[in-house]
Amino acid sequence: MRAVLVRLHRWFGIGTALFLFVAGLTGALIAWDHELDALLNPTFFYARSDAPPLSSLELARRVEASDPRLQVTYLPMSVEKGHALQMMVLPRVDPKTNQPYPLDFHQIAVDPATGDIQSRREWGALSVARLNLMPFIYKLHYTLFLPFVGDIDIGTWLMGIVGIVWIFDCVIALVLAFPSVRAWKKSFAFRVRRGGYALTFDLHRSGGVWIWGLLLMMAVTSVSMNLSTPVVQPIVKLFSTLTPTPFTDPSLLPTAKPNEAPIAREDILKKAEQARVDRHIEAPPGAIYYAPMFHVYGIGYFGAGDDHGDGGLGNAWTYWNAQTGQPLGAQIPGKGTAGDLFTQAQFPLHSGRILGIGGRILISCVGVLVAVLSVTGLTIWLKKLNGRRAASSARKAPTQRVGTQQTERAASQ
């Protein structure tokens, strides 16, 4: 049985090593994506003027009036002092062609005092230019920039499958790390003084044992991040019900005529404020999101700069019919079924934000260690492969010498 597990661990490790190496290093960086992005691109994060900010609704109105080709689809309701207001935009439909206007950007940074656009970019573009570097790393983390085939996101599916293999490999690795009850201490030790291959082996085995729980958590949450709808939700529903939202239950999606304009943001925000009171949500409306393809508004509840929801299970969201203003569901952290709580915990756990700054530091360290485990695993495999080849050559050498001697005798006769 152990021989089978060793073979499985070997091939699972070889098959996923490169993907986990990339995911580990990129994950270590994107735990600090906002901070690093702001360091690289101050004009995208910091306001040019010091004047008091206008309301976010007024800023969105000015942006849309200045460029009728676009509509604001994600709008923070407040901004940190001295910061630019970052909005997401999508093209409107050109009535002459009945096609979306061509836009080469969909994220903009706006001076909150004037409404002037300071900078713009295509978030997640295949570019390592300074302005695009952090979004590039973020998207590389979970898609590898692989293309869609039809409606299938190959990159997201591939990284999700890697996560599934990783889950099984975590279990196999733990079994292999403890070959006997008497030798359990060796599975936690590092032979630092010996160095070389012995230390490489210990970094892989003992390093994996020390952080095994975190590795398993990262594997499970990576599957949840990439394959939530097709894989994770059906499994969760076997054990618990899930409170439906428009993005998890298509039957809740409203119908609308093509290009039908949504109701005003102000009207949805009034309803969202009343929902905040009714549902006992402490934070104010922090952002409004409009999904044109689904005809849905989403309202997130958080303070300025807390859109990621550091600490706990994240931010509350309510969802609304963009044509009628009727409520379509909500996600309230810490409330709902066991399945709801499980799904709420996935991103906070995967990003480390469930524990705030300390959690993000921990996840960055785990990301680096995942890359180390990938490298040491490949190193061990290559050394053993070379050893097997050398042993095979040594076994063949006597036979080859005997054959050569026989040939020489025959030739001399």
UniProtKB/TrEMBL annotation:
Keywords: Membrane, Transmembrane, Transmembrane helix. The chain crosses the membrane at residues 12-32, 154-178, 209-227, 361-382. Residues 401-413 have a biased composition (Polar residues). The keyword Repeat does not apply. It comes from the Bacteria. Residues 392-413 are annotated as: Disordered. The keyword Cytoplasm does not apply. PANTHER family: BLR4505 PROTEIN (PTHR34219:SF5), IRON-REGULATED INNER MEMBRANE PROTEIN-RELATED (PTHR34219). This is PepSY domain-containing protein. It comes from Paraburkholderia bengalensis. The lineage of its organism: Bacteria, Pseudomonadati, Pseudomonadota, Betaproteobacteria, Burkholderiales.
